[in-house]
Specification:
single chain; about 260 residues; mainly alpha; MetI-like fold; 12 helices; globular
Length: about 260
């Protein structure tokens, strides 16, 4: 009982801290500037660029991260342990450093001959994918680890082929966990700054996402606009998280 009270007190302090941070931001914003900001072409271009690149990067993370998570969950051995460590690197290494490494890699003559990734939309997508894909891999691994393989074997004894048995049992059961990881991946891509700036270049009107737009306003002395964009982004993220969590909760109940 005492432990629960201590936990509640810690949670309450954290919530008060969050409320104080957001309240101080709200009190510093001139809400009359919001309507003008929503009509600003550079801001709208940054929003569209952020949505486009983050969604593409998340789709690629789904294609690569879910099979990788399944492999890590079902296979045992030294190689798997090594891969598990390697997949953690993009999480612990600062995104700015990842951006520098990616820029060096894309500057190689062979890579440049295939496609000029630097200062392009494709480069920004790759940078966001590289930073955020571990969230999909880790969540998929955890979700698949919680589903016993026996379900697939039972489905196959009832006449299902391997793919159908996997999709109808393991994948559907693990889908809420995979979906949560994809949400984290998308939000990480949406808010990615360092690697996107280094590889994409943060070119206004071309490769400028929302965090880069905030940085350019703040570095140019437009603190009020930068703060307004930041708060609008936070409200948008809260709305998206609430909507997606409600959808996942409904899926769990239906399932």
């Amino acid at each position: 009982m005492k432990l629960s009270r201590v936990s509640f007190f810690i949670v309450l302090l954290f919530l008060l801290f969050l409320a104080g941070v957001f309240a101080s931001g709200l009190m510093s914003v001139d809400f009359s500037a919001v309507s003008g900001l929503l009509r600003e072409s550079s801001f709208l271009t940054a929003v569209l660029f952020s949505l486009k690149t983050s969604l593409i990067a998340t789709a690629i993370a789904f294609i690569i991260g879910v099979p990788a998570g399944f492999y890590l969950a079902r296979v045992r051995g030294r190689l798997v342990r090594l891969l598990d460590v390697l997949f953690d690197i993009p999480i612990v290494v600062p995104p700015l450093i990842i951006g520098v490494l990616l820029m060096t890699f894309f500057n190689q003559p062979l890579i440049k001959a295939i496609y000029p990734f630097i200062f392009t939309t494709a480069g920004a997508v790759v940078a966001q994918f590289f930073v955020a894909v571990p969230f999909t891999i880790k969540s998929s691994k955890t979700a698949f680890s919680m589903v016993p393989p026996i379900y697939e074997r039972i489905a196959m004894t009832l006449g299902a082929n391997p793919f159908t048995s996997f999709f109808d049992t393991t994948f559907k059961i693990a889908l809420p966990g995979i979906g949560s990881g994809l949400v984290l991946t998308w939000l990480r891509c949406l808010g990615e700054f360092g690697a996107t700036l280094m590889v994409g270049g943060g070119i206004p009107g071309k490769t400028e996402n929302i965090p880069v737009n905030v940085y350019l306003h703040m570095s140019g002395g437009d603190f009020e606009i930068g703060l307004t964009i930041s708060l609008l982004t936070v409200l948008f993220v809260i709305f998206c998280i609430t909507l997606i969590n409600a959808a996942l909760f409904r899926f769990r109940r239906i399932d």
